[in-house]
Amino acid sequence: NVYNSWSVTTSNECRRINDEMRTLLESFGHVAQKRITFVQARNDARVALYRLNKRAFPLLGHTGASVPELCEKLFRQNVDHVHWIRECTRCKLVIERSSANSMLWYLSKPGWKDSAVPNGNMRSSTVSVWLDKIRNCKSLRICRRCTQNTVSRLVLDENPYFIPISIQEGVRPIIEPTINVNNIRYRLCGLIYFGSSHWTCRVVEPNGD
Fold this sequence. Notes:
Layout: H1 2-7, H2 19-32, H3 38-52, H4 67-74, E1 82-88, E2 94-99, E3 105-107, H5 109-113, H6 127-134, E4 136-142, E5 149-156, E6 165-167, E7 178-181, E8 184-187, E9 190-193, E10 199-202
Parallel strand pairs: 3-6
Antiparallel strand pairs: 1-2, 1-5, 4-5, 7-8, 9-10
Helix pairs in contact: 2-3
């Protein structure tokens, strides 16, 4: 899926995500020029990831790589474009701000229940509704200025090139072909299933994108 996205774009934005992604994309370039095969590119990536975290990305045995940790590693932002802020619901005082370079967003039952956004039904909501809810979470802290409740919000100072989403067990959102995040349109490029078996699919629009 990453190769397919890389092959149809002229943007260099994805190259600036982190060192692991840049190395992978360089391998894609060699594949496109027929200098190496996909198998070689895959093996090089596996060795590099194994050196970073032997537990999450084993080379031998029957245990496969952790797909969530793979997404965490490949789509992590090198720069602080993503932040969590704790904000008062009344006076809008920003109480706390912290970096959140991970770009893997989890759709889970606890995330839904902890949301500060009241609308929607968990069994019939789209991915767009889910993202709005998990980016606005309840907080137990009280505003020191006006003593009202606070919420934790995920703020994107700059939109990332990819947004990987992990759908947790028991969650069945309606998957849209496109979503808008901060007025930027994102297109679904693929799905990965990594339960008891494993499969991937590529999404191609009628115009070939």
